[in-house]
């Protein structure tokens, strides 16, 4: 394999991003020279490169400051990493992530006291941006220090990020994945969901905290993989403090970028929210590279949130192509989710043999008595799978591509998920026969929630059927097969208006008098 190209003439920003820099060429073309004929330090090019000029960044060459002095590199190595030859771990100071009082979600966007974290020293020049033995190459987590995310953010914006996600989006995602909306958690009697609830929660408390749920799922996976290492090794075990910290920080950055994209709707532009949105999006996109090869449930949630985050305004096409796209992150998250779900079954493949773990994740989770999810491990796993399935179907519809987790036009009829949704609609029609005659006076919170949750699931079925029509046309099926798929989609649309249309209209008329939770759930 050829060695990585050394960037001798790149500015600091282009060198960090490993992209081509044209600062030297522009200065030579303009007939400019470096100040005092030197390079580095204050002797930067008088004309900025195209990338820095377009983004209004300072085009500096500070990295050359010590390189141009003889012996400076070895001296810097001795100062930064005196124990590199002996393999002794180096120390790095970074902020402690607190717990948000609103939703028990740590928010990595504030200034807090720091503590020293011990990390392993890396001696090779892994990323090409830092010199061997420097502080940048001492740990993976030092590539994107957490303080760069929130140093330039207004304190009012930070408080809005915390409150908006905890009180709005966490409720929306929680309803989307709750026991009422997830088809895999439905019972034959819709009212039995509340009666058989593990914690005997009220209707308002049935929505789940998605960050808490995904974190607890990772805890269960880590427990079982650590215990079964003698049977089979798993690549999905990240229980070291450094890896957990990296994953948590990436999740918090994804939450901040996703929440900040809604700031123009609620905040005054005088707070420079546009620049904040762009910086958060850029940081989160760079940060996805740290977690895309660390498959766990929190990484899945981070990648999904970045996929749902729109590209900010004033971001050029060249910058969009430089890094990871949202669709690539979503596809990676779906693959990770599929692998994690297969890990929970208790079977592992090792070469030509199939190894059966002595105890599965479900057994260990039940023995641990993990009850902070609001339901058992199987329910949490099913909710996470329902989230991934919904995003997968949405991608197949909007991007006109094949679905990963579900079959195409020829096999979707036999899948359990869509059969459960159709059965739920039948139960819904039988249950709501007398609701229209009762009028608006009896249309309370319970009825509104039952209507919205069933309609949300049926909307997922509609997306799947429309995506099947596009796939049938794209794969050039027979004409009778295409007509059959099209007829199924049109029939589902008609059933939606007949079954849910009148009750949704009643819910809309009553919306101002219903609970705030229902108003948020109406947006789904």
Automatic annotation (TrEMBL):
Name of the protein in its database record: Zn(2)-C6 fungal-type domain-containing protein
Keywords: Nucleus
Species in which this protein is naturally found: [Torrubiella] hemipterigena
Keyword Translocase: no
Domain Zn(2)-C6 fungal-type: 10-61
SUPFAM superfamilies: Zn2/Cys6 DNA-binding domain (SSF57701)
Stored InterPro entries: Zn2-C6_fun-type_DNA-bd_sf, Zn2Cys6_DnaBD
Gene Ontology molecular function: DNA-binding transcription factor activity, RNA polymerase II-specific; zinc ion binding
């Amino acid at each position: 394999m050829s060695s990585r190209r050394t960037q001798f003439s790149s500015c600091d920003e282009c060198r960090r991003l490993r992209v081509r820099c044209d600062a030297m060429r522009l200065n030579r073309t303009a007939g400019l020279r470096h100040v005092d004929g030197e390079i580095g330090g204050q002797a930067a090019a008088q004309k900025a490169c195209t990338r820095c000029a377009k983004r209004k960044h300072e085009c500096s060459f500070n990295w050359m400051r010590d390189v141009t002095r003889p012996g400076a590199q070895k001296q810097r190595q001795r100062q930064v990493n005196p124990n590199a030859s002996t393999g002794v771990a180096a120390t790095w100071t970074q902020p402690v992530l607190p717990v948000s009082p609103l939703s028990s979600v740590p928010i990595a966007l504030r200034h807090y006291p720091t503590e020293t974290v011990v990390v392993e020293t890396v001696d090779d020049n892994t990323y090409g941006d830092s010199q061997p033995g420097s502080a940048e190459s001492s740990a993976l987590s030092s590539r994107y220090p957490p303080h760069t995310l929130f140093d330039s953010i207004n304190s009012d914006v930070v408080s809005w990020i915390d409150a908006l996600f905890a009180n709005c989006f966490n409720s929306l995602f929680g309803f989307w994945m709750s026991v009422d909306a997830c088809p895999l958690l439905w019972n034959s009697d819709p009212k039995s969901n509340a009666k058989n609830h593990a914690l005997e929660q009220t209707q308002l408390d049935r929505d789940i905290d998605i960050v808490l749920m995904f974190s607890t799922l990772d805890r269960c996976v880590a427990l079982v993989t650590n215990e079964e290492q003698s049977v089979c090794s798993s690549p999905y075990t990240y229980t070291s403090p450094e890896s957990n910290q990296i994953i948590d920080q990436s999740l918090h950055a994804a939450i901040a970028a996703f929440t900040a994209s809604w700031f123009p709707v609620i905040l005054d532009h005088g707070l420079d929210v546009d620049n904040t949105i762009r910086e958060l999006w850029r940081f989160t996109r760079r940060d996805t590279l740290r977690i895309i090869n660390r498959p766990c449930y929190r990484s899945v949630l981070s990648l999904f949130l970045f996929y749902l985050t729109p590209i900010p305004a004033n971001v050029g096409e060249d910058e969009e192509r430089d890094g990871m796209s949202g669709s690539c992150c979503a596809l990676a998250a779906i693959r990770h989710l599929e692998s994690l779900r297969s890990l929970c079954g208790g079977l592992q493949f090792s070469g030509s043999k199939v190894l059966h773990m002595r105890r599965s994740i479900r057994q260990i989770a039940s023995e641990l008595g993990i009850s902070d999810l609001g339901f058992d491990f199987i329910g949490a796993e099913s909710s996470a799978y329902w989230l991934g399935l919904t995003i997968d179907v949405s991608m197949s519809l909007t991007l006109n591509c094949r679905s990963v987790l579900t079959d195409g036009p020829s096999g979707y009829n036999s899948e359990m998920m869509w059969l459960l949704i159709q059965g739920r609609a039948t139960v819904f029609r039988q249950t709501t026969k007398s609701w229209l005659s009762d009028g608006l006076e009896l249309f309370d919170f319970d009825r509104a929630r039952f209507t919205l949750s069933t309609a949300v699931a049926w909307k997922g079925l509609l997306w799947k059927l429309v995506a099947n029509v596009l796939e049938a046309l794209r794969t050039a099926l027979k004409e009778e097969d295409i007509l059959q798929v099209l007829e199924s989609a049109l029939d589902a649309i008609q059933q939606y208006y007949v079954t849910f249309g009148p009750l949704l209209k009643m819910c809309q008329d009553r919306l101002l008098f219903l609970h705030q939770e229902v108003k948020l759930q109406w947006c789904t």
